[in-house]
Amino acid sequence: MSKSATLAAEKPKILFERPKALSDVITNYCPGCSHGIVQRLVTEVIDELGIEGSTVGVCPVGCSVTAYDFYNCDMAQAAHGRAPAVATGIKRALPNNVVFTYQGDGDLASIGMAETIHAATRGEKITVIFINNAIYGMTGGQMAPTSLPGQVTQTSPYGRDVATAGYPIRVCELLSTLDGVALAERVTVDSPKNVRAAKKAIKKGFEYQIEGLGYTLIEVVATCPTNWGFSAKEAITWLQENMIPYYPLGVYKDAKAIKGDA
Amino acid sequence: MAEKVLMKGNEALAEAALRAGCRHFFGYPITPQTELAAYMAKRMPKIGGTYLQAESEVAAINMVYGASAAGVRVMTSSSSPGISLKGEGISYMVGADLPAVIINVQRGGPGLGGIQPSQADYWQATHASGHGDGHIVVFAPSTVQEMADLAARAFAVGDQYRTPVMILADGMLGQMMEPVVLPEPLADDDLPAKPWAIDGHKNQRPHNTISSLFLAAQQLEDSITSRFERYEQIKAHEQRAETYLTTDADVVLVAYGAAARIARSAVNKARELGIKAGLIRPITLWPYPVDTIESLIPSASAFLVVEMSMGQMIDDVRLVINGRRPVSFFGHTGGVIPTPDEVLVAIQRAHAGEEFRVVPIHSKLTGGAA
User: Fold this and answer.
1) pTM of the predicted model as reported, rounded to 2 decimal places
2) In CATH, what is the architecture of A27-259?
3) Is A262's pLDDT higher than 80?
4) Nearest Cβ partner of A68 from B50, B63, B211?
């Protein structure tokens, strides 16, 4: 048999392809930024659950402000910090649809903290993907509510001084005290193993929402090489050495684990 | 014909909204709109709707943004300081072409101000409801009946032009009781289709996006100019005003809402004294009923604006009159209600050919010069 005949006979096996829910456009994310990975994971989960047609996403103000162009499901753009309130309005109008927000640390834990806490305590059946990279990316690297003590940013040029700027907020720990929260889990995407774990957590969040268990939040400890002033590789190292010790990975609240059937 | 019932203005408005198909209400407690939210809290769970007390006015208006984006008829209500907080969300809704009905039961300001009836948010409602180039439609009811009728109308106009609509009431209209004939309830089939809504594409259409963001300057300009073309349609078709005894009027009063009720009594008193007074009562504050005012310039010798503020709507009256007739002002502010007798004195002065601006009598601002 000739070589070409062999190729024609074997059906090519697809090992890797673009998720259907991820649109075919160039994103505005910098090289080495975690956004691209996390966004892909969200769309893979949407594909696996077969929910693109019933999903409505809400993008924030921040580097993912134009994420409505990157997803193929219906999308809304929200005012800074208000994504949980917008998602609440959408979910209350469409209780049978899947609703998620995708927010950074400034959006979620600073200007939108009230919306975050109250959506959580109401047990809004939404899934929040929280990108914690300890800095304001889009506006060029200012101190975030999650910037580490001593971290140098444009607005903490001598390092974050906790005596004047206060301490970083640990969002998963904070939300885990609220009865309305069904899932609060912190993950990262610094290695293939952790990427797989992150995807599992995101999928669990969507599943818990579909089961009507309550508010679900997946915090992703993420890189911002551009504003941290590192190469992509250095940023991963900095994340591992500085971010993870302050923001330990793990499940902070799991409604099913509490009930004992996770 | 439907039965007349005795209701508070706030409750009549709430019931009319339900009958217009509104099944989602998001709000935050504030005086003097309390009865409206309480009515919604009582009724919504009984009819399968959503009443949600938000954590803040800011959250409430953004919930309205979300529900409107999802395609349902949705409403929020507040009072002056709360409306300031909603300004952000209102601007985003303007920019994203989202319909919704926003109630402002006005009280005195600035700041925490007071809780008595006021009309001091005219400028905010008609000229600066949020940042950026844009407008919202503003209705001004003057009776409990109109609180109900304009609520129904507001949902229709909002959906037709894809714009937020504000009902600018005040504490007096909200809390007074009058007989009202409520509008007939709409069926689900009566509600307009919203193919632009983000309600899940069900793999049957391209994905929809609701956004007010245009990073390219030219795209933003294009989106705004296209919206302003729609505003021209609104101006052409939606101006509303009531005229009372204006055909032969020498002195034409201009007043809206609660102030118009007082002005109307004063017009009657002036007529008893032989002064030909009349009243234009704007029902839409944006678009401003410029055509009605323009039509009376040839026959009137003077205009007198009466407001429960230091004089805000008078700017729009002056823009129409444009120096062709004297335009005087009488008002009280801060929750003080003008009396018909006070307005009558103002009518007499205007009739005598004076042009003046009368604000609270203790103020040095009161004087002859307009």
Assistant:
1) 0.95
2) 3-Layer(aba) Sandwich (3.40)
3) no
4) B211
